[in-house]
């Protein structure tokens, strides 16, 4: 079974996915189910707080939502840099579809 067993309640735990997307998780309480709790296990764990989703815009056009994030990109104005499809493709690919340079990392961006 994949049960999380926190050792320190209230201590931050790091959940990391997509290589570098990090989330802080805090466990504040653990208890056994009682007669008043939902019996459907898909309802657990209970999320007590959810940050508002932050949609980053493309750093180049500042119009469209970001679809890509680059790290160490020599042509980007900042690191990391967020791109929409309209701006990412022409800057990084030739008209024939060849990658122009590859000395950077790129990930599909999922809004926070």
How would you describe this structure in keywords?
1 helix; single chain; 3-stranded antiparallel β-sheet; 5 strands; 112 residues; two-stranded antiparallel ribbon; mainly beta
Task: Describe the 3D structure.
This protein is mainly β and 112 residues long. The chain is 7% helix and 21% strand. The chain contains 1 helix and 5 strands, in the order E-E-E-E-H-E. A 3-stranded antiparallel β-sheet has the order 4-3-5. It has a two-stranded antiparallel ribbon with strand order 1-2. It is elongated. The model has no long low-confidence stretch (mean pLDDT 83).
Order of helices and strands: EEEEHE
Using only C-alpha atoms, the radius of gyration works out to: 20 Å
Which stretches are low in confidence, meaning pLDDT under 50 for 5 or more residues running?
Answer: none
Q: Indicate the proportion of strand residues.
A: 15-25%
Note the topology.
Blueprint: E1 12-17, E2 21-26, E3 68-71, E4 81-83, H1 85-92, E5 105-108
Antiparallel strand pairs: 1-2, 3-4, 3-5
Give a nutshell description of this structure.
Helices cover 7% and strands 21% of the residues. The chain is mostly beta strands.
